[in-house]
Request: fold
Amino acid sequence: MNLFRLVADLSHLASIFILLHKIQTTRSCRGISIKTQLLYVLVFVTRYLDLFTGDFVSIYNSVMKLFFIGSSCYIIYLMRIKYKPTNDPSIDTFRLEYILGPTAVLALIFNYKFTFLEVLWAFSIYLEAVAILPQLFMLQRTGEAETITTHYLAALGIYRGLYIPNWIYRYFTEGGAIDPIAVVAGIVQTALYVDFFYVYFTKVLQGQKFELPA
Amino acid sequence: LEMPAEKDEL
Reply:
């Protein structure tokens, strides 16, 4: 565990609490893509199967995994059941098959071992890299976002961004160890946030509303 | 390439 990794994980936790706070206080999931949230459930469930195979890492690791699975399912419950009327599928139109198809094929080709668990693990890594696309697509379509929603995305982006210095740190402290699948997918994932962060820094953090140029 | 000793990333 290094500082980059710890702050990254805390930022990931923060993003979930920000999202829950947004839904609970506004009693609405307006502006949130349920497709992205469903993809996160799939990401966590397929990646954390090692919870059940006895590959114990640490209490911290297991608690975080259980939290991510539980909270992502809870968010789906809020969006699909409790605040269902505030969920507008007509603007959440990114086609999930464009994500699920290619990531499944990638996982079958590029994995560390052709076993059920390893293919699912690689799938979860590729899937996480692009899981934010329906959300960003929705943002692009509506051209604006509530400030709290942009804080949610910023926390997620910081989490992903900090994994990169974490890998660099680990490369030098763990004898040149590198996990190419996670690193390549992670760089792609971080790159997807670049446009968002440009608007976030130049508008939201200056006190303006998040609005995309027409 | 040498893999990290354990897959501990979340």
